[in-house]
UniProtKB/TrEMBL annotation:
Keyword Zinc-finger: no
Taxonomic classification: unclassified sequences, metagenomes, ecological metagenomes
Identification of the protein by name: Uncharacterized protein
Presence of keyword DNA damage: no
GO annotation terms (biological process): methanogenesis; methylation
Keywords: Methyltransferase, Transferase
Family indicated by similarity: Belongs to the trimethylamine methyltransferase family.
Pfam families named in the record: MTTB (PF06253)
Amino acid sequence: ETVALDVIKDVGIGGEYLSCEHTLRHFKEELSFSDLAWRNRRETLKQFDNFSIRDRAAKLADEMIGKEKTCISDKQRKELDLIERLWLKKNGY
């Protein structure tokens, strides 16, 4: 329902979607907010160590790296390691 091919066809190249009824009904479902932006008052930010956006980005990156998830099984990892070793040996590495 949210991908309105008929609306896309009607609007065409160079058109705008903001005035379409479909956009009005669905735009809030598609909004996303960055964890980096500070949406409170500046005085409140000072209570939280006054981090710059760069500091918040670095902290968020560290947290994401720390939450690394394994997406393959141990068996799959061993198979990939074997494939890599064979390829390296075959190509003289």
